[in-house]
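Q: What residues go here?
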């Protein structure tokens, strides 16, 4: 317990003693649950306080401050990544690509280039984070996004736009850097909660980014201005990291000395308990992203292509999933610390499959919207639980490298999912794609059950002398 918590500790002691002295009177009135809650609150203040330590030796006050700062940075960076989504095809067309399929092809190629390059180079950045520290990698990624997003606004043809987007993907790797920093500084029993809160920032930014991009493009009258404003936002995120995030990094002696992609896979492959997690993340992201290219078309089939608000309602079908994800991520992350990440991951995958399968069978937009919201709630437990398992299964000296490889598998899922969704939808219909995606998620849950090692839930918080003496009242 820190000195700053002493007044709170004394207050908690007095309240707990007062409650315990009057326990019999309160018990007769049926207040047992309330009494135990007060005593448990006292335990948390007096025993745990803010004295926990993360794997990097950061005090609780430091890791909490870093966590909140990184949630803000994650929110801003997610906005930067997603502002171009609504108008990218129109900007490609404006650069000189003729109407027709070529615009679609170039839009898809430019959109996917970021994920492909990030998948290739993320392990290298993960290796450097184990050698140089987590904060420098976050700074490198935010600055790269700021510079090359602004550079896209100066593109004179699609080749320059493609090059800027590809270089940004190669140099960024922000998600892996942010996840590694938060996971290594949070105490072991708060990793799930911390990563869930971080994902809330990511999903919230991804929901808000396309809306901001559309509004700015209409208001400013030029797509180029949107790229420049977005680059400025990413630069502000860089300054936030510089002044708000603290790190006391000491490289481990056994840190890997082999930075190449295949050698990184070989190094992490020695930790056999980690290998199943790469399949989990790839399959999960492949299933989630496979719906992306056909979601708008399916919404149009429910509402009619001539619906006056088709664009808004199609965007709402995407946004409602992100909103539910943002709501559920920290709540599920907190519970996963108590009951175990493997259980939560299995439940989230099965729940997501159950909400996905009926989406291709409904004929009502409100029901479809409700199923999309339920899907978002389930997805809120997927990535935080998976990343928390990676953090706990990987040795401390390899966590940056492990998160770099998990980022690669996630990016490969982002790259392959839309390709799979487009092929299956064109060959067998969009409703079939929903069923295929649900099957992928259910198969992934079975894989987690059979292949992922089970870890004991985080140890319970220390109890007060009242609790140790068995003086909590029965429920």
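A:
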């Amino acid at each position: 317990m820190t000195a700053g918590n002493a007044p709170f500790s004394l207050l908690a002691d007095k309240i707990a003693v007062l409650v315990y002295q009057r326990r019999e009177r309160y018990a007769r009135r049926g207040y047992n649950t309330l009494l135990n809650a007060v005593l448990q609150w006292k335990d948390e203040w007096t025993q745990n306080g803010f004295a926990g330590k993360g794997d990097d030796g950061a005090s609780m006050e430091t890791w909490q401050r870093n966590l909140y700062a990184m949630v803000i940075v994650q929110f801003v960076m997610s906005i930067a990544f997603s502002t171009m989504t609504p108008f990218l095809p129109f900007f490609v067309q404006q650069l000189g690509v003729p109407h027709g399929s070529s615009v679609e092809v170039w839009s898809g190629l430019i959109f996917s280039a970021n994920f492909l390059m990030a998948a290739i180079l993320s392990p290298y950045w993960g290796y450097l984070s184990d050698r140089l520290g987590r904060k420098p990698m976050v700074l490198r990624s935010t600055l790269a996004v700021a510079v090359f997003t602004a550079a896209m606004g100066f593109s004179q043809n699609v080749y320059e736009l493609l090059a800027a987007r590809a270089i940004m993907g190669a140099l960024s790797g922000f998600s892996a850097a942010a996840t590694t920093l938060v996971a290594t500084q949070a105490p072991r029993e708060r990793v799930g909660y911390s990563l869930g809160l971080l994902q809330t920032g990511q999903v919230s930014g991804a929901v808000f980014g396309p809306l901001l991009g559309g509004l700015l493009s209409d208001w400013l009258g030029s797509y180029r201005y949107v790229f420049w404003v977005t680059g400025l936002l990413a630069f502000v995120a860089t300054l936030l990291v510089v002044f708000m995030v603290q790190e006391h990094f000491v490289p481990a002696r056994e840190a890997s000395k082999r930075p190449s992609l295949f050698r990184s896979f070989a190094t992490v492959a020695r930790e056999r308990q980690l290998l199943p997690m790469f399949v989990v993340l790839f399959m999960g992201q492949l299933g989630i992203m496979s719906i992306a290219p056909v979601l708008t078309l399916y919404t149009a089939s429910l509402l009619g292509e001539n619906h006056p608000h088709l664009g808004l309602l199609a965007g709402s079908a995407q946004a409602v999933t992100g909103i539910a994800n943002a709501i559920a991520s920290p709540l599920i992350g907190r519970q996963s610390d108590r009951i175990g990440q493997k259980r939560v991951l299995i439940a989230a995958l099965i729940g997501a499959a159950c909400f996905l399968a009926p989406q291709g069978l409904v004929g009502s937009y409100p029901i479809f919207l409700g199923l999309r919201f339920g899907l978002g709630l389930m997805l809120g437990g997927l990535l935080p639980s998976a990343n928390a398992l990676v953090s706990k299964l990987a040795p401390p000296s390899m966590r940056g490298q492990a998160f770099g490889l998990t980022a690669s598998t996630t990016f490969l899922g982002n790259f392959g999912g839309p390709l799979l969704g487009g092929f299956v939808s064109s060959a067998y219909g969009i409703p079939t794609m929903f069923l295929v995606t649900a099957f992928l998620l259910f198969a992934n849950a079975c894989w987690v059950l059979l292949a992922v090692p089970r870890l004991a839930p985080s140890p319970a918080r220390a109890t007060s002398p009242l609790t140790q003496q068995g003086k909590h009242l029965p429920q």
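A: Context that may help when evaluating the design: DSSP finds 21 helices and no strands in the chain. The longest helix spans residues 101-132.
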